[in-house]
Amino acid sequence: MEQDILNLPPARFKVKNTENRRLIWDVIRKKYLPLTPEEWVRQHVVHFLMHHKDVPASRILLERAVHTAQKRSRFDIALTSSDGRITALIECKASTVKLDEAAVYQMQRYAYELRPELLVLTNGLQHMIFQWNDSGQSYHQIENLPDNL
Prior knowledge:
By secondary structure, the protein is an alpha+beta fold. It has one domain: Alpha-Beta Complex (tt1808, chain A), CATH 3.90.1570.30. 20% of the residues lie in helices and 36% in strands. The strands form 2 sheets. A 6-stranded mixed sheet has the order 4-5-6-7-8-9, sandwiched between helices. The protein has a 3-stranded antiparallel sheet with strand order 1-2-3, covered by helices on one side. It is globular and about 55 Å long. It starts with 14 loop residues before the first strand and ends in a 7-residue tail after the last strand.
């Protein structure tokens, strides 16, 4: 299975084949995971955060439970502050998934519960970034990720 080239900096990953699937090493969870199209994007984002935005691994949370009014779900990536508060929420989709209203709505449900300052929705090819605006009490779209994550 060929992996898509993404609109993120190239990265080297430890990938291995088993009898029935490919696995990729997750540096945060310290284990091999099934190499799905969504995991390919998630691992690229983690690499980008650590190696291009200097976010320490200790501030990156992956696939944790979040309870919304509708149901129990899992966010893909969250960044925390030194006091453990979630400052950014990143929702990853496979590169073949369109970033549509449903994906934005999913991210907004998580944001309502977790109250991060920054939201990112990505399929590895397109990236939508939203920042909290205190005066307007809402998120507004911005072009690039801030340097101080």
